[in-house]
Amino acid sequence: MSQQGYVATPPYSQAQPGMGGYPAGFGSSPAQPLYGHYGGQPQSFPAPPTGLMKPVSSPSGMPPSEVSSQYGSNIQQNGAHPQRYPAPPAAAAASPYGQPPNSTYHTMAPQAPAQQLTNQMGSMNLGYGPGPMQNPQAPPTSPPAQQPFQTAPPPTMGQSTLGPPPAGPHSPQMAPPQSPLAGPSMGGHPSMGGHPPMGGMGRPFPGPPPPGSGGFQQPGPGAAGQPGYPQQPQGQFGGQMAGPFQGGAAHMSGPPQKKLDPDSIPSTTQVTEDDQAKRGGQVYTTNLRGQVPPLVTTDFTVQDQGNASPRFMRCTTYSFPCTADLAKQCQVPLGAIIKPFATVPKNETPLYVVNHGETGPIRCNRCKAYMCPYMQFIDGGRRYQCGFCNCVNEVPTFYFQHLDHMGRRVDLYERPELSLGSYEFEATLDYCKNNKPASPPAYIFMIDVSYANIKSGLVRLVCEELKTLLDNLPREDGAESSTVKVGFVTYNKILHFYNVKSALAQPQMMVVSDTAEMFVPLLDGFLVNFQESRAVINNLLDQIPDMFADTNESETVFAPVIQAGVEALKTAECSGKLFIFHSSIPTAEAPGKLKNRDDKKLINTEKEKTLFQPQKGVYEQLSKDCVSQGCSVDLFLFPSQYVDLATMGDVPTHTGGSIFKYSNFQVEMDGEHFLSDLRKDVEKAIGFDAIMRVRTSTGFRATNFFGAIHMNNTTDVEMAAVDCDKAVTVEFKHDDKLSEETGALMQCALLYTTVSGQRRLRIHNLSLNCSAQLSELYKSCETDALINFFAKSAYRAMLNQPLKTVREILVNQTAHMLACYRKNCSSPSAASQLILPDAMKVFPVYLNSLMKTGPLVGSAELSTDDRAHQRLIATAMGVEDTQLLLYPRLIPLHNMDVASDVVPAPVRCSEERLTDAGMFLLENGRSLFLWLGQACPPELVQRVFNVPSFTHLPADLSSLPVLDNPQSKKLRSIIDSLLDQRPSAMKVQYSMYWLLLLCILFTGCLNYFDIIKEQYLFVELGNKRSHIYHMVINLTFKPWEQYNHIFNRLPKLTLFFA
Model's pTM, two decimal places? Predict the structure, then answer.
């Protein structure tokens, strides 16, 4: 008998036909609503007979046999979770998915895609559990185990709900779970909460408002307003705020409902803890094809034995479907997230460098794949067959080696390219531009010296930091000093170049005022070695703040600044990076001048996408010029108002650069945060003038690429620079059938220039399984990689499609994936049961959080620049970064073990986990938030903040005091540990008592708190969180002016409304 894992039975679900007609990827939305239209003409429908279920029978009378698995007992499933819940009773069994039940139900009124996930999930088994996969075509006749609880269908519209519903003939009936703040149900499906979180996300919908606790509802006659109960007004953000007085008499009737146990819901923290317990601290060897690696949150050591480390490559699934029809049927995206320069821990072996001399790396003559472990040597070692295209190639004479009795080369383990998944080749002149050796790269620091930056103290801060920071320029391992050259430019409406040649006693300034025709006024002395010109450079950095101290110039240029950097690198015949410190929208008369095009009226309209589309012309050509020269751009922005970040960030995004934004910058409050970012950015490992190609074995190919990249054709991924934090997400499509025997092979080859000026090829190889069974595909899925792919796909699609359409596609594809699993991989069960694939059981949580991120939320309270910034930085994120961004860590500090060096285990991101007597740390990789409860013990406050009690905490606290006691040392150690793990610095922000949720609004983390309500996605309403947000806003926004001294240093107000 199969095991069902977690099973919940919503009271109002109906079985529905198979899920067809979903658009693939991010194409256009369906021409016709798939499951009706939300807000369409209401229809009434009779209630079904209580407990009526379609019986399940089997011709053989025997339970179906388990599907065989190619995974051995030593291979653990990703996110496996012990079974705690019995299967449903026989009365709850239903026909296989796709067969409508024998019922007299009338068709529901048409509904919009905003409601589709609700209806779709109601007809699929969205629970979870590692029970054996079974063939749904052979249902068992023996009754499953007793179900924990089962609820009755709702009464017909207008039917009284005061009395208990009649019990079914086979099983007891219980009231559905409900939040204590929610009113009794009006009917409908409870899977989506008391608001439309999937389809509309913070914007009004046509049609009736969402009900309080009954989920989506198509009202019957008289449901719109009961006598004596006037129609409630619409909420500020579309739809009524859920509350005890919503609706009519139906809301005021019925007994109190039992609340669902939150710990019975799939938990992201539990999944990560289980994986850490099972695979943490172990050695993960890569000798098996298609094995699922540990989660990104797990601490493990990689031993390369023929496949690339998961630090370099992760896939959405490690078992590809054999045919395109199977891939289309399940709609699980086939993708890989490649991080070619990922940091290798000190306890793992760094990549070996292979030198084949003047002949260069050995490649297949047909497909040009590089020598790797997938090449099969034949004919006594004189020839080899390519594993990618099956072409037989001659082995060069110098590379010949005999084969042993197993057909393997005798020197197999002496050559990294034959035994390892990742390695490097030294490239020859054939791989260099113009067949000339590459030169060491250069870093050019370009400082905006307009009035705003001088007044804020930014210019002086940057100049002081560069005096010491330039000693830490990146260098090759073992090198005494860096070969990276440096140059300096200041600008406002005009540009100032500086000659800092070591032979000079004083630096020399050269001014270029004609920004329309940009050129570099000096050839010798602009780019120099820092060690040789240290004295002159320090002299210059001392003088710059004083030279412009009295400036009144507020207008700036931007495009000419980038053009000047490109021309300087072109003159020096080298690649490099520009560090631009800018403060305002470029309004001076020059190429690339921008106008304020921010228009809140476009929010939630068809034209909203234009707010995120970069302005073409000058900046588009600049991106091409930068990539051609190998010039990356890192932009540090310090705006006090709108700067059109969508356009200004376009060049950094296409050149492998980074964007850092510090709104309303103040040196005292934000200086250390900015300097930490600058230090990490300058010192990180990086490669320049890179070009990457992903080759695959026959049967599939790479078709789409997402990242901080530029593409001139469909195959070559060009990056002016690629560092240790940048990842490229690749999508694959079938062009033929795949073989289960040979599997699927992929090779990522990255040609780049090192910081010492050497041209190299970095190779990453990965082999995957192929299967004709969808159960194997779902078992091999990785949720963290999937959500990375979905996020990048959605953020690209929002440039060309309305946000509503993008959200609908996300919902539809997710519903289709889960419905396909229920139909083809799970054992027969009641149509109202909820079943999730074990490897994807927390995927709906991530999807909800993704749809509440700034770019997709569609709220006028969010600044356009903030939304554009998050969209741009997410484009180049790796798997671990998106995982943390969408589900942050909430770390309890009040009970931490001060004697341990381990960071306390995080708890679920729920307001229920916060206690008045507690202290918590919330971090999502971008923000670090320290919260104190009102009843936090005075002795803990004293030891951490050096004040006698909670009430004595200063409102303008900007940093954690350095105290000599165990609690203070432990807390600072935890924060330092988190900062070291993240690619960008995080400013620690403090809050206390009822300011918690309001401050979370400002930090952009609102969607992470009370996330447990999102995990009620399919079984319980999130009424309580609507109440919390409503009350907090009403209570705190009126007197918020008295807290300006706190909030004016926090990021722009960010509202996430479900």
Answer: 0.73
